[in-house]
Design a protein that fits this description.
alpha/beta; UDP-N-acetylmuramoyl-L-alanine:D-glutamate ligase; Protein-Tyrosine Phosphatase, Chain A; six-stranded parallel β-sheet
Length: 429
């Protein structure tokens, strides 16, 4: 039987192993670190061989090809060695797409892709469409199609997942925006990062659609490289400055707040129209969606102050959208593991909306320097950050956790950071 090697033993790797079994391959899963017990259980239950705490090149080199999980960089020694040996290395979404017969609805972007993918899935499911959601959203694409054959799959796609595709062909794809993020993975080269994003539409043809932001500078630079056959749809944000207009001239009801979410909602509207939903079906989805935690999540209101958890805002662009969406004075909690951020672009919004800044990170020196002269304080502790913010707030204000940074200096991940913030806020009396 045909053997394949799978690098990475988490969601993507295990999903790929299950699909491999379904399609008649013998999978071998190899992880440089330790495999989570829940994933080991799935592998053992399906009699999938695996190794952890290192890679055995001799075993992997016997594979017909290699499926790589997105968290594994192309610069990893085992990947370079396998490439040098002549083996084809593909991503898990590439592997899944080779066996999926339905239509892929793919969404990428530096910011907003999780919200947009979730909103699209909700809108389609509410309208009765046979649809699943996965990719970077938390469910392996390969794992989904190992167990089902939906008519549509909504895939949130990261640049990491697009690094190793060579036939991946969505029915509708979107690049919401391209702003600096994860540049350490791309030699701190913005062009390389943007080119990775554009692989989402590389193999589309005249039967497919590609949506892009007409005002996004990085997207405009690479438009000429897009296959001329694909149907391109430019999204002009000037079209819906005051809202999404319905055919009768009234404004469509949408659940998500902020200009950036109005844009995300408009993108979903286009997808839904291309699939054939009615205007009423689209509004029914857009008006009832509840976003995932850590994305402008209102935690509670206490003593006239609103507490918002936006821990997922791990870059400056995300914070810009968050601050832009605020309609009250803000006490802003910011900080974490810096990504080479240019915080100065936020100064106009800070001058307009932010009354005080609380820095929450292991090293807050850069933030303290950039915002010198502002009402600013520093701490390494969530509980203290909230106490400081509370002391600087008054009735009608918003305390906003929107870090602009990665979370790994003090927390396990952005979810842990947001969970700790929420828990401490809910303890307040």
């Amino acid at each position: 039987m045909r053997q394949i090697g799978i690098i990475g033993g988490s969601e993507s790797g295990v999903g790929a192993a299950l699909l491999a079994l379904k399609e008649g391959f013998i999978p071998f899963v190899s992880d440089f670190g330790r495999i989570n017990e829940s994933y080991k259980k799935v592998l053992n239950e399906n009699s999938v061989e695996f190794e952890e705490s290192g890679h055995t090149f001799e075993r992997l080199s016997q594979s017909e090809f290699i499926v790589k999980s997105p968290g594994v960089p192309t610069t990893a020694p085992i990947i370079q060695k396998l490439n040098d040996s002549g083996l084809s290395v593909i991503s898990e979404i590439e592997f899944g797409s080779r066996f999926y017969k339905g239509k892929i609805l793919a969404i990428t972007g530096s910011n907003g892709k999780t919200t947009t993918a979730g909103l699209l899935f909700h809108t389609l499911e509410k309208a009765g469409v046979n649809v699943r959601i996965g990719g970077n959203y938390g469910y392996s694409f390969a794992g989904i199609i190992a167990e089902s054959s939906p008519e549509y799959i909504v895939l949130e796609i990261s640049s990491f997942q697009l690094d190793d595709v060579d036939t991946f062909k969505p029915y509708i794809s979107t690049i919401l925006n391209i702003t600096p993020d994860h540049l350490d993975r791309y030699d701190f080269n913005m062009s390389k990062y943007a080119q990775a994003k554009f692989k989402i539409c590389k193999f589309q043809d005249s039967n497919d659609y590609f949506l892009y932001n007409a005002h996004d500078e990085e997207s405009k630079k690479l438009l000429s490289s897009v296959n001329t056959e694909v149907n391109k749809i430019a999204i002009d944000t000037d079209q819906f400055q005051s809202g999404i207009v319905k055919s009768d001239g009234s404004l469509m009801q949408v659940a998500l707040k902020g200009k950036h979410n109005l844009y995300n909602s408009f993108v979903v509207k286009i997808y839904a129209e291309l699939i054939g939903l009615t205007e009423d079906q689209i509004e029914a989805g857009l008006s009832t969606f509840v976003n995932l935690p850590h994305r402008l999540e209102i935690v509670r209101q206490l003593d006239g102050v609103t507490y918002i958890n936006d821990s997922k805002a791990t870059n400056v662009d995300s914070v810009f959208y968050a601050l832009d969406a605020m309609t009250t004075s803000v006490v802003w909690i910011v900080g974490g593991q810096d990504k080479g951020n240019d915080y100065s672009v936020l100064l106009p919004l800070i001058d307009e909306k932010v009354k005080a800044i609380i820095c929450l990170g292991a090293d807050n020196s850069k933030l303290l320097s950039v915002f010198e002269g502002k009402d600013i304080a520093s701490t390494h502790n969530v509980e203290d950050a909230i106490k400081m913010a509370r002391s600087k707030s008054q009735v009608g204000d918003t305390i906003l956790l929107s870090p602009a940074c990665a979370s790994f200096d003090l927390f396990k991940n952005y979810m842990d950071r947001g969970d700790q913030f929420r828990n401490e806020v809910n303890k307040l009396k």
